[in-house]
Amino acid sequence: MEGGARQVLALYKTLLRESQKFPSYNYREYALRRIRDGFKAAKSITNEEDRQREIQIAKESLEVIKRQVVIGQLYRPPTLIIEK
Question: To bridge 19 with a disulfide, which of 26, 31, 52, 61 should be the other Cys (CB 3.0-4.6 Å)?
Answer without folding.
Answer: 31
